[in-house]
Design goal:
2 strands; mainly alpha
Length: about 250
């Protein structure tokens, strides 16, 4: 930080005095990089020491550097400000997210159990991802992108977050499936270059599971009735299936 401060001071001084002396751009970049690396290491340490009790919602977790607000809004392809009344015959409920809030306590408990499993897996995921530099690493980027969408989906099951309608959830599931397919392709390219070993066999076995789960998510995302209304009682079907696969996919 001191080196960065010195370089900034020298650069500002040279510009203020209209000095003809050129500013060492590379030296300035190197100093900036040291600050960036320091902040990254602090962030990694925080991620590895945070527990689920520190969080109110999953999306309050440390934001992914690669996913800006613009990227995140595309991640789940939610409907935004356009409100669609999915339950015209039910007073006080317009969207699936509102329906999730008014589920029976029994259904809420069932979903909470799945969400808790997801949160535990996510903590392990964050600790692992924090070990790797995500600059130019498409695999890490895709994994974070998928995790971000999954967090939005877990918030949806509690009546929170950017996902509002059933179609939002379906689109989010499709995005996870698409990203998972890309992840599978990239990882297989790496596996093909690895010498024959038990590690390569394990990697290929995991890839088969990823392909299977992506296929299952894609099929589930085509179901238009993730939240149903039967005899006035709201129950969850497809969302619960997606949550189970999300936990394993991480």
């Amino acid at each position: 930080m001191m080196k960065f401060d010195q370089r900034v001071g020298a650069a500002v001084g040279a510009l203020s005095n209209n000095s003809n002396k050129d500013v060492d751009e590379n030296d300035f970049i190197d100093a900036s990089r040291l600050v960036y690396d320091g902040v990254r290491e602090i962030r990694r340490a925080v991620l590895m020491n945070r527990s689920s009790e520190d969080l109110d919602t999953d999306t309050e977790f440390e934001p992914v550097e690669d996913l800006t607000l613009e990227t995140r809004s595309r991640s789940s392809a939610h409907t935004g400000d356009q409100t669609v009344d999915e339950y015209p015959d039910i007073s006080g409920i317009c969207t699936a997210r509102e329906a999730m809030r008014k589920m029976t306590e029994e259904d809420k408990q069932k979903i909470a159990q799945q969400v808790e499993l997801f949160r535990r897996e996510k903590l392990t995921f964050d600790s692992e991802v924090a070990k790797w530099d995500d600059t130019g690493n498409d695999i890490i980027f895709l994994a974070k992108h998928m995790c971000m969408i999954m967090m939005e989906m877990t918030d949806f099951t509690r009546g929170r977050g950017p996902l509002k309608t059933t179609m939002d959830v379906i689109n989010a599931a499709k995005k996870i499936s698409e990203a998972g397919t890309k992840l599978d392709k990239l990882t297989r390219e790496i596996a093909e270059q690895c010498p024959e070993s038990s590690t390569k066999k394990d990697l290929l076995a995991y890839l088969q599971r990823i392909a299977l789960y992506c296929h299952q998510i894609q099929i589930t995302s085509k179901v238009k009735a993730d939240v149903q209304n039967i005899s006035g009682e709201l129950i969850v079907s497809g969302v619960r299936i997606i949550l189970k696969m999300m936990k394993t996919d991480i």
